[in-house]
Every structure is written in structure tokens, then in C-alpha cells.
Design a protein that fits this description.
With about 375 residues, this protein is α+β, with helices and mostly antiparallel strands. The chain has one domain (about 1-360). The chain contains nine helices and 16 strands. The protein has helices at about 1-15, 35-55, 60-70, 95-100, 105-115, 150-155, 290-300, 305-315, 360, and strands spanning about 120-125, 130-135, 140-145, 160-170, 175-185, 190-200, 205-215, 215-225, 230-240, 245-255, 275-280, 285-290, 315-320, 325-340, 340-350, 355. Strands 2-1-3-4-5-6-7-8-9-10-11-12-13-14-15-16 form a 16-stranded mixed sheet, sandwiched between helices. Strand 14 (about 325-340) and strand 15 form a beta hairpin. Helix 7 runs antiparallel to helix 8. The radius of gyration is 22 Å and the shape is globular.
Length: about 375
């Protein structure tokens, strides 16, 4: 079952990286395979260009340098923010991972490395490590070189500050309530971010994230609504460059059998359904996953053909051009051998019925 869940997670990520809004006036005219490949290739190149541009900004360069020096990770595919794992490549697709994907990992790393807030870490070029000093302020500060040239010149021109930090802790787990992040180079702010979470007796109600890395701006949210026996979670984001939207999303997930979205949940809690949209470049996809039905149909299955048939029936995704609405292709399911186990795997199916792996169809852009 864990293998099936991971395959489902991989496909969901493929969709959330290439989806858009469902327009009732959209056409459904199929593209030829050659036309579809042209659209996919164009969007892949555009997204690669955006990622390179973001990480080539002064703020992006400095973030990468800090991650390298401090043994942190920005996330797969060099995401422009350290907490964008949900929109890149989570390894699971349960409620706990969903929540963790919205938590600033830089904040968690800072807290785990320190005994208390109020500390300054300065890069020491002679020792090749960080010098430490306490400060009365409720913040963690890193002072470091902003890029490779400044590293060679041994100049600490960048400062990243985490402030306004409020945390909930349970055993070894940490859940941030609020945090602000500011990155300056030569005292000029190059990146800023804010994180706010709201809790009630029903657990998490809302998480809001805002990041500015000029000329890019990202806003993301998670909003949970509880009933007596389920929790509806809506996740959305908007990524803009110079005020122009590059990507937007809105995904609704329903988790049944609970009325609480616990920030410290321990058990895997899979959604019963997942529906929504996200657009990126010239591509959109429409997702309609009946997850509970898929899991119910395969809970005792030993025949791989039963798993494949259930996936094709209950886990549906269609890709279209944006904004035109012409059909590019869809996801189909098949089986393959992974080590000594036969598992189900998603394939991209063109309108002529031919298929490719997701990596081939999307030109490795999304690193599934």
C-alpha cells in the first residue's frame, strides 16, 4: 500500500506542477502528438528559464550560498523559497506531509540548531565554519558572503534575519505560528517572507505565506474547514513576475474520518478526494481523484492488473492548453518492475494513444 501511495503522490505532483483553472467555455479539441510535444517543450523551457532567473538574482544567489554553508536545502528543483516542497516534490501525499510542506524549513533548521532565539551566526573564513554570539533580540541572524565572488574576497556582505518567531513544540516536533524572514545585501533588502498560521480547537485553520524575491512574488495559502467527520483543505498559490501571474492553483482535498487537522499528527491520513486546478505557462491540467475509491478497490488486491484498472478508473487527469483549452493529453496507468516488485506507474498519453514516461513528456523539468 505504501508503494501505491507514493505512486499516487508522484502523479499528484506532476499535476500540481502543470495545472490551471477550469473554464466552462474551454474547447476540447485534441492536439496532434507533434503539437502537444511542442507545447510541453515550450512550457518546460519557460519554467526552466524562470527557475534560473530566480536563482540568479542577488537574493537567489545569496540564498543558495547560505544553504550551502549551513547545510540546508531549498527543496527539489531549486525552489525560490525553502518551504515550497508541496509545489515541487513531496515524497508522500498524506495530511502530515501536506502541512509540513507549508512550514518554513529554514525556521525549523534554525530552531533545531539553537537552544534559544537571540543568536547571531557569522561566517568565519579562516575556520570555514560559523562563529556564534548571543543577542538580546528575539531573532536568529546569519551574516555571510552573498555569492562565490564574495566568498573568494572573504567579504560577509549578506545578512538573513528570522524574527517575530512564535512556535508550538510537542516532544521533538515544532510547528511555527509566525515568522518573518529578511535577506539584505549591503543593507539593501533583496528578499522578504512572512508566515502566519491560525489554530483553533479543530487544529489548523489557516496558513498564509508571502515571499518577495524581486522581480518574483509568491503567495500561498492553506485553509481548513472542519465538519463532524471530515476536514476540507483548500491549498492555493499565485506566482507573479513584475506583477504578471506565471502560475496559479486551487486544489481541494477532503480528509474523512477526522474533524481535526492536527499540526502534530502521527498517523498517515490520506485524502478521500482531490480535485482542482493549477496553471503554469501554456499548460493546464484538471484533476479528479477519487482516492478513497481507489484504495478501497485495491486494499486486498494481489493482481497488478486490478491496481492498474482501479487507477485508470479513479485517478483521472487531463492536460489542456492555456488559455485555449485544446486537449494535450492525459494520464494513463500501467505497470512496471521496480527492483523485485511490480508496481503501477503513471504515463503521459497523447491523443493518438501513444505514451511516454512523465520524465520524457515533461523533458525532466519537474524531476518526478
Amino acid at each position: 500500500m505504501k508503494t501505491k501511495i507514493k505512486i499516487f503522490a508522484m502523479l499528484f505532483v506532476a499535476g500540481t506542477l502543470v495545472m490551471s483553472s477550469c473554464n466552462p467555455d474551454d474547447k476540447d479539441e485534441p492536439l496532434t502528438k507533434e503539437e502537444a510535444q511542442e507545447v510541453l517543450s515550450s512550457t518546460s523551457e519557460e519554467m526552466q528559464s524562470i527557475a534560473v532567473e530566480a536563482m540568479s538574482t542577488p537574493g537567489g544567489n545569496a540564498l543558495m550560498t547560505l544553504m550551502m554553508l549551513n547545510d540546508m536545502e531549498l527543496g527539489k528543483n531549486q525552489q525560490i523559497v525553502p518551504f515550497a516542497d508541496l509545489l515541487s516534490n513531496p515524497t508522500e501525499f498524506d495530511a502530515k506531509t501536506l502541512v509540513n510542506s507549508f512550514i518554513p524549513q529554514m525556521v525549523i533548521k534554525a530552531k533545531k540548531n539553537t537552544s534559544q532565539m537571540g543568536e547571531i551566526w557569522t561566517w568565519n573564513f579562516e575556520t570555514g565554519y560559523w562563529d556564534y554570539e548571543e543577542t538580546a533580540e528575539n531573532s536568529v541572524i546569519w551574516i555571510f558572503p552573498s555569492n562565490e565572488n564574495q566568498m573568494v574576497a572573504q567579504v560577509n556582505d549578506a545578512k538573513l534575519t528570522i524574527s517575530n518567531l512564535e512556535l508550538l513544540e510537542q516532544n521533538a516536533d515544532i510547528f511555527p505560528i509566525s515568522a518573518s524572514i529578511s535577506l539584505t545585501i549591503d543593507e539593501v533588502e533583496e528578499m522578504s517572507a512572512s508566515y502566519e498560521a491560525s489554530l483553533s480547537n479543530n487544529g489548523i485553520e489557516e496558513i498564509q505565506i508571502s515571499v518577495t524575491l524581486a522581480p518574483f512574488e509568491l503567495n500561498a495559502s492553506l485553509i481548513a474547514t472542519s465538519t463532524s467527520n471530515s476536514v476540507k483543505v483548500v491549498i492555493s498559490h499565485t506566482l507573479k513576475k513584475d506583477g504578471v501571474p506565471l502560475s496559479t492553483s486551487n486544489i481541494e482535498l477532503v480528509f474523512e474520518g477526522t474533524s481535526v487537522l492536527n499540526p502534530f499528527m502521527e498517523d498517515d491520513l490520506m485524502p478521500s478526494t482531490a480535485k482542482g486546478y493549477l496553471h503554469m505557462g501554456e499548460i493546464k491540467a484538471e484533476v479528479n481523484y477519487a482516492v478513497a475509491a481507489f484504495l478501497g478497490a485495491t486494499v486486498n488486491a494481489t493482481d497488478i492488473n486490478i491496481l492498474v484498472a482501479a487507477a485508470n478508473e479513479h485517478l483521472n487527469m487531463i492536460f489542456k492548453t492555456y488559455p485555449g483549452g485544446d486537449k494535450i493529453g492525459s494520464i494513463t496507468w500501467d505497470s512496471k518492475w521496480d527492483m523485485e516488485e511490480e508496481i503501477i506507474t503513471p504515463l503521459f498519453e497523447y491523443n493518438d494513444g501513444t505514451t511516454e514516461t512523465l520524465e520524457e513528456a515533461f523533458n525532466f523539468t519537474f524531476q518526478l
